[in-house]
Amino acid sequence: MTFALSWSKASPLIEDPMAVFVYLTVVVGLIFMLGESKNPALKKLFHYAPPLIWTYFIPMLSTTFAIIPQESSLYGFVATYILPVGLLLLLLSANVPATLRLGPKALLMFLAGTLGVIIGGPIALAIFQPWLPEDAWKGVAALAGSWIGGSANMAAMIEAVGTPKEILSPIIVVDTVVGYSWMGIMIFLAGFQDKFNKWNKADDSIIQSVNKEMNDIQRKNERPIQVPQLLGLLGLAFGVSYIVLKIAEKLPQSAVLSTTTWTVMIISAIGILFSFTPVKKLEGYGASKVGYTAIYLLLATIGARADLTYVIDSPQYVLMGIVWLSIHILVIFIAARLLRAPLFFVAVGSQGNIGGTSSAPIVASVFQPSLAPVGLLMGIVGNVVGSYAAVLCAQLAKMVATML
Q1: Three-state DSSP state, 49
Q2: Which residues contact 5 (CB under 8 A, 6 or more apart)?
Q3: pLDDT digits (tens, 9 = 90+) for 108-124
Q4: CB 110 within 8 A of CB 382
Q5: What is this structure's pTM?
Q6: CA 281 from centre of chain
Q7: Over 169-181, what HEC string results?
Q8: What is residue 55's DSSP assignment?
Q9: Residues 356/299, Cβ–Cβ less than 8 Å
Q10: What is the 8-class DSSP label of residue 78?
């Protein structure tokens, strides 16, 4: 039994890919400029709903109201060429030795989040299967890929199980609406991390120490952005990313190792290697700032792919996603209580799974401004672990669908 409501829709007002790019760029630019406003009302608004939330929410509304299309060649271009550029530039500032000093709790919290996603999907499917089509488990497989590592793993799972479009569309909405709503809640909770850590008897002194160390290094090496260095880091990022993409196209392809997955894994390894070389000095000239710009544009295109009318047409998918995410949240907070882990580890552990490389570093930077690379490294772990954990979740979901 499925729900279906009719909804007629006009053709998008803006369809040309370049025009869509201009529109999204203007939207993101306005959002972040307003976020810096001194106006009391705007300051209060962006305190509770940071610019990042609007970066994907406004494009989503734009698609819903037929201003821009849900499908455009631009979105694939950004994911293919701009995402690797952003990842590489963000990783130049990765201080791996300092990150490792955070200890095993960070990794354990990430794995707890992974476990929550693996068991949450089949349980949520079992609850809502009577109101879903028989092959809804294929949608669970796709969402498991996204919620354990990000869009690259989602694409791999879609290819692996053959998720049909009528199931994939509401699943993308669940991914953005439910997944990014949780990211917004985590950003909001950043202001309560001291109270949480005190209640949980969690020692965050090592986090504060590493954050201060990395902040001091960034401040010491920071330079005004100069044209030669800016062009140098852009040339490096685009050049390396394009070469890696072409190499990835030649590598063996499978359900868990697509071209995108290979690209993300290789570019991440190169970025980490560069962080041990003189190339990391480009961070002093704003490499991570340019990297974040690329990631924000990617988030805008992700939001543009979601159409809120699917929430009306398929509310059961959204409810399933809420139950699924609630199980993930329950598991990770139980682990935090048992391990006496600080809220920062909860945030990066959860977002390393649910958000992946695109949002984990952003959430990490809200909690601890200099620890964005820690979130990014967690997202990379999610890419690697998620390729296999999502397959396990998909198999469990298929078993549930078969039994019911």
Answers
A1: coil
A2: 312, 313
A3: 999 999 999 999 999 99
A4: yes
A5: 0.71
A6: 26
A7: HHHHHHHHHHHHH
A8: H
A9: no
A10: I
